[in-house]
Amino acid sequence: MSILTGAASDDRRIERARLLILAWLSSTVITGLLMPAVGLFREPRPLWVALGSVGIVCFATAQAGLFHAVVMRSARGVPRRWAVAFTAASALSIVLVGPAAAGTWQSWAWIGAAIVGSLPVVLRVAWSVVGALAVCVCGAIIAAVVNGDVAHMLAVVVFVGAGIALINMSALWLWNLIADAHAGREAVAALAVSEERLRFAREVHDILGHSLSVIALKAELLDRRSADSPERAKEPAEIRALASSALEEMRMAVAGYRHVPLAEEIDALRRVLEASGVDCTVRIDADPTTAPAAFGPIAREAVTNVLRHSRASWCEIAVRGDEDGIELMVRNDGVTDQPLGHDPSSGGIDGIRDRLRDIGGTVSIDASGDVFELRAYSGSRA
Asked: What is the end-to-end Cα distance of the chain in Å, rounded?
């Protein structure tokens, strides 16, 4: 009950944080909506008032939808449809809002500032700078065409846009930090549950397995002593059969607990890496259920090494297979002098290498440049 209550409390906190970030970002949307609208009150031509209103509303809607999609999305990145809508609304605003209040109010300058402030949400920093320069060029052209003040136009676009960009980047940085921390707690909890399942399975196997084995052995000895009496031998034989059946069923049940599916193991490791700021790519080109049980501890040991002893910025986990066998590969760009094998829960790479050797597998480790690579093979090609 406490676990469920804690999970529900975490969900409520993350939702409250999401709403706070959306409210934070909405302040820049309101700026991009109200400030250009000032020009509409100074525009004497009804047609341009109507067209300008359409352009401002379309842009504000696209910007709000873009921010909402980024914050509500579970994975990082910008949904393509909202990026396209924002680009189209920005381009449309040049035609519809640019001529409004020409010479009396820099209507489009505020939309240009909003565009500059939103670019870091859509693009990387380098491309955001390129986009900001393009917006400045558009602003200068608009001011020149409508006989506006080019310097005033550029000042609003650059300085107000930089302020809006700082606000938006701060909000998104905080949200990504919160989301990563939440994802990290979920991933660590999932791994903790898996470890507890393994511990429970070992204890059940050690306690009940020993007792049932002794019962079966005693029944077998009693059966041998009662061989001259069929009536007396019947009950020991039944006891032995029941004990053997219970022992086999217990081992089958425990086997399900002791072996965490490789796909689940890799997914939990991916979430831990991403929550730690490491970009993780997972490629599974073979049936993970056919991989040996040792592949899970190997992947966990390699990822533990990445988190503890390196400064990796990316990590790749791949499972490949062919007619010769199956391969697990873990690569990252954090070469370290620290040896593998420090995770007591997995027994270290040396112990795993021995387990793989028993089934005809091998583990190879290679460091080239700043790339560290671990490969585990199982099959004839090993």
From this structure: 47
> What is the rounded distance in angstroms from the CA atom of residue 320 to the CA atom of residue 330?
12
Q: Pick left, alpha or beta for residue 79 (phi over 0 → left; psi -120 to 50 → alpha; otherwise beta).
A: beta
Phi and psi at 27, nearest 5°, equal: -65, -35
**What is the distance between the alpha carbons of residues 181 and 97, in angstroms, rounded to a whole number?**
42
Buried b (16+ CB within 10 A) or exposed e, 219-255: bbebbeebeeeeeebeebeebbeebbeebeebeeebe
Q: Whose structure tokens read 């099959």?
A: 379
pLDDT tens for 3-58 read: 445 555 667 888 888 888 888 888 888 888 888 888 888 888 899 889 999 999 99
φ and ψ at residue 328, rounded to 5 degrees: -115, 130
- Those residues with Cβ within 8 angstroms of residue 272's Cβ, 6 or more apart along the chain or in another chain: 184, 187, 188, 191, 303, 307
DSSP state of 319: E
Angle at which helix 161-225 crosses helix 2-41, to 10 degrees, equals 160
DSSP state of 160: I
Distance CA 168, CA 178 (A): 15
Q: What is the DSSP letter of 76?
A: S
| Amino acid making up residue 238 | E
Tens-place pLDDT, residues 192-215: 777 777 777 666 666 666 666 666
Partnered with residue 281 across adjacent β-strands are 316
